[in-house]
Amino acid sequence: MKIKNIPLIEGLDLFPLYKEDIDSELLMKNHLLLTQIEKKSYAVLDEKYLSEGLNYLAKLPLHVEVTFVDENSYERLANRYLENKTDIDLDSSFSVDEKEDFLDDDLSLSEFLQTSSDILTNEESAPIIKFVNSLFYQAIKKKASDIHIETHEQRGVVRFRIDGVLIKHVDLDKHVITLIVNRIKVISNLDISEKRVPQDGRTIVKIAKKSLDIRVSILPTYNGERVVMRILMDSSKIPSLEELGFDENLTQKFRQLLTHSYGMILVTGPTGSGKSTTLHSFLKTISTSEKNIITIEDPVEYKTNSINQIQVNNKTGLTFSAGLRSILRQDPDVVMVGEIRDTETAKIAVQSALTGHLLLSTLHTNNTTAAITRLIDMGIEEFLISSSLLGILAQRLVRKLCIHCKEEEGKFYKAKGCARCNFTGYDGRVAVGELFLVDDDVKIMLKNNMKDFEIREAMQKKGLVLLSKKIEALVEDGTTSMQEALRVGMRD
Questions:
Q1: pLDDT value of residue 62
Q2: Is beta strand 32-37 parallel, antiparallel or unpaired with respect to 65-67?
Q3: Which segments of 318-425 are extended strands (E)?
Q4: pLDDT at 1 over 90
Q5: CA quadruple 102, 104, 107, 108: dihedral positive or negative?
Q6: Paired sense of beta strands 65-67 and 389-401, if any
Q7: DSSP letters along 212-239, please?
Q8: Hey, which residues does 475 pair with through a beta bridge?
Q9: Does residue 7 have a pLDDT over 60?
């Protein structure tokens, strides 16, 4: 067995190498990965588990050189092994009968609809059931967070939201769209005959022996009804603080913030910037059997057994403010409010943070200091903000350029698109954050009625790195494009 030390190259892009009669799952368990570097096969070891990897390699009928790569390259390769395993598990978990309920990937949708058009009579016909099931299957396979079904004047379209951006999945005849919408109404227990008012519902879809919770929203438009389905996650999908993807410095500051037993932590950013995921990661970090954690959300996006979750229901009067009042009578240690939308909720949240509760919530503002102005606009006095607020995180999710097809354009890179990235030019996202901590200097600034931009300037001098600067750095190092940076708010 020959061990060759290859110079550590930052950004080495490696893909799994599969061999017959070698279980890739056992390779991962023994910290041994196979790959190709310059068309030559190698066994890649993790230096932290060197003995396990070498011992397992000795048992394998392999004649490959052994090497080490840098930590990031190893992690990328390991993640690709996991992604491939997930795809294989997803496909293999279907029985032959179950696979009959889905469209084959190799069968074009247009061909399917053409051959099935004679029996497209109602929402209960086999082709429509099969097609709707396949929408969920394809959405999961492509890691979509939402499914959009839209009706236009002549045609309709199905789009998936992948990495925060809508991507067209298929164009369909308007008649077929109507049947699909009706089928979704049936499985969501909604009124098929009602097409004039919005309807909201939920459905549970079983795919690959797992139950998916789907939130359904139906809205009448001029040309017909449109549907948005949000795929809600279970607790196993909640990332750890490290898995959120922020830089290590921020992650350590999060841990320090979460050691407080009372006070308010806010996460800000536009819709789709990952605020809910971050809050649930915070809750996962501090959740213990000794703590009573209660949330009120709209919707409950991550179902988990370790915390008590309340779903907002405006029809019954269960609003954020009403729910928060009730939660405070339940002797909570930690409270999470999905969003502070109004003055009443803001006032109750601040009071609860002052009276011995750790309160987590979100606000829709572009940056950290703007959240202070937003609270003042809601009628919260400066001295209450300075007494209750621990910190504010402004975050964005930035799409990463596909490393296989990105093109150099002057000083920067631009998206092109290839089969590996579904022809979008992007593959995955990276979290970027600006963390504003309320220290004694900030409290004095608030006491002196300084404006948010003045506080922002003062904190920059103390070392606050702005969100825009972090996004700009991603453009400069080729992680993302200028177009994507502007989309997520580099100029905010």
A1: 82
A2: unpaired
A3: 334-337, 358-363, 389-401, 407-409, 412-414
A4: no
A5: positive
A6: unpaired
A7: EEEEEEEEEETTEEEEEEEEEEEGGGPP
A8: none
A9: no
Rounded-to-integer distance, Cα 230 and Cα 147, Å: 7
DSSP category for residue 464? P
Rounded average pLDDT over 335-349: 93
CA dist., res. 91 & res. 88, Å (int): 5
H or E segment to which residue 88 belongs: helix 71-92
Q: Is the pLDDT of residue 83 over 80?
A: no
Q: Which pair of tokens denotes residue 55? A: 């011992």
Cβ-in-10-Å burial (0-12, 13-18, 19+) of 446 comes to: buried
* Cα four-point dihedral sign 131, 136, 141, 147: positive
Q: Which residue has the tokens 């079904």?
A: 149
The position carrying tokens 């709707």 is 132
Tokens 């109750």 identify what position?
A: 348
3 state SS of 138: helix
Q: Could you tell me which residues come within 8 angstroms of residue 281 by beta carbon, excluding any fewer than 6 positions away?
A: 238, 239, 240, 241, 243, 244
* 405: CB partners within 8 A, 6+ apart: 415, 416, 417, 418, 420, 421, 425
Handedness of CA 327, 242, 427, 85 (dihedral sign): negative
Q: Which 3 state secondary structure label does DSSP give 424?
A: coil
Which of 99-113, 127-141, 229-243, 249-263 comes out lowest in average pLDDT? 99-113
What is the full DSSP assignment across 275-305?
HHHHHHHHHHHH--TT--EEEEESS--EE-S
What is the per-residue pLDDT for 334? 95
Detail the DSSP E strand segments found in 334-420. Answer: 334-337, 358-363, 389-401, 407-409, 412-414
What is the spatial distance between Cα 262 and Cα 152, in angstroms, rounded to a whole number?
51
What's the half-sphere exposure (Cβ side, CA atoms, 13 Å) at 246?
A: 27
DSSP 8: P
CA distance linking residue 324 with residue 294, whole number of Å: 9
The one-letter code for the residue type at 488 is V
> Could you give the CA distance from residue 250 to residue 437 in angstroms, rounded to a whole number?
11
Out of 52-61, 339-348, 363-372, 397-406, pick the least confident. Answer: 52-61
Torsion angles phi and psi, residue 76, rounded to 5: -60, -45
Statement: residue 80 has pLDDT above 80? no
Query: Which amino acid is present at 390?
Result: L
Q: Are 171 and 180 in contact, with CB atoms under 8 Å apart? A: no
Taking only the tens place, the pLDDT of each residue in 195-206 is 999 999 888 887
Lowest mean pLDDT, pick from 86-90, 182-186, 201-205, 305-309: 86-90
Residues in the chain: 492
* Token pair for 125: 């016909």
Q: How many CA atoms lie within 13 A of 339 on its CB side?
A: 18
Using an 8 Å Cβ cutoff, are 218 and 181 in contact? yes
Instruction: Say how far apart CA 408 and CA 478 lie, in whole Å.
Output: 9
